[in-house]
């Protein structure tokens, strides 16, 4: 059924019963007016919306078809429902979703489906997983995950505005078996081959990066903190990583 689409990624499910959540790349044609092809500015945000469409069948695929219609005058990057995600624009291109020029120029837009025949709470959890992934991919800190309302004053995402702090707390914490953190080191943080300040550098994390922590080891103390988090293929000092709440992993929370 999906052979015409490219599977961009498979997000780990927030609960085992969800299985895997596929992301289908189904881009708006370049010839459409709602895909201007303008590059996003260097300062990035992630803007969260609700679709405000409760009609049965108004899922992610339906919205993918909607934004590809040549007469549609709005656009955004991803639509999320309770079992799949569609990508409509590359994450380095401007979409028309924030209601202001500044919001459009600086942010990746995510719409969460509200179709009455779907599970909204599951769609929200899937969106949190997507946001966490994009934060890591695009080096967007949690402080720049914002609502549509923050740009234009519109009452959107209407179903999340009253619990926005809870939504942010759930990013990266939707699956309690995972641990995430934000890099606080001014100028960035080196990733080293071993948990040792003299070990070879194998990478770097930008200040404000939101990253998944794969484990913890004891190594060279940094300002009195001897813990190092495993990040990708190396280790970074725990002193410079602010761990997010929501994990049930003791090594992450203690």
TrEMBL record:
Taxonomy, superkingdom: Eukaryota
EC main group: hydrolase
UniProt keyword annotation of RNA-binding present: no
Catalytic activity, as annotated: Hydrolyzes the link between N-acetylmuramoyl residues and L-amino acid residues in certain cell-wall glycopeptides
InterPro entries in UniProt: Amidase/PGRP_sf (IPR036505), Amidase_domain (IPR002502), NAMLAA_amidase_2 (IPR051206), SH3-like_bac-type (IPR003646)
All residue ranges annotated as the N-acetylmuramoyl-L-alanine amidase domain in the record: 33-167
GO biological process: cell wall organization; peptidoglycan catabolic process; peptidoglycan turnover; sporulation resulting in formation of a cellular spore
UniProt keyword DNA-binding present: no
Signal peptide feature range: 1-19
Pfam families hit by this protein: Amidase_2, SH3_3
Keywords: Cell wall biogenesis/degradation, Competence, Hydrolase, Signal, Sporulation
The protein's name in its UniProt record: N-acetylmuramoyl-L-alanine amidase
């Amino acid at each position: 059924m999906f052979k015409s689409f490219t599977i961009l990624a498979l997000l780990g499910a927030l609960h085992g019963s969800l299985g895997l959540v596929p992301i289908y790349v189904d881009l708006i044609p370049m010839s459409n007016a709602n895909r201007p092809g303008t590059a996003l500015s260097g300062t990035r945000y992630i803007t969260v919306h609700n679709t405000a469409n409760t009609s049965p069948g108004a899922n992610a695929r339906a919205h993918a078809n909607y934004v590809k219609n040549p007469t549609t005058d709005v656009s955004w990057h991803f639509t999320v429902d309770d079992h799949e995600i569609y990508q409509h624009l590359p994450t380095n291109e401007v979409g028309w979703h924030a209601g202001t020029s500044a919001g459009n120029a600086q942010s990746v837009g995510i719409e969460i489906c509200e179709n009455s025949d779907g599970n909204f709470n599951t769609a929200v959890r899937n969106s949190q997983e997507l946001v966490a992934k994009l934060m890591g991919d695009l080096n967007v800190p949690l402080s720049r995950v914002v609502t549509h309302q923050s740009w234009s004053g519109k009452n959107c995402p209407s179903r999340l505005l009253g619990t926005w702090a809870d939504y942010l707390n759930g990013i990266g914490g939707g699956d309690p078996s995972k641990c995430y953190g934000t890099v606080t080191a001014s100028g960035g943080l080196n990733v080293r081959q071993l948990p040792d300040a003299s070990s070879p550098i194998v990478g770097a994390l930008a200040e404000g990066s939101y990253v998944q922590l794969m484990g913890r080891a004891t190594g060279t103390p940094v300002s009195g903190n001897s813990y190092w988090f495993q990040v990708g293929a190396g280790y970074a000092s725990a002193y410079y990583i602010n761990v997010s709440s929501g994990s049930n992993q003791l090594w992450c929370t203690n």
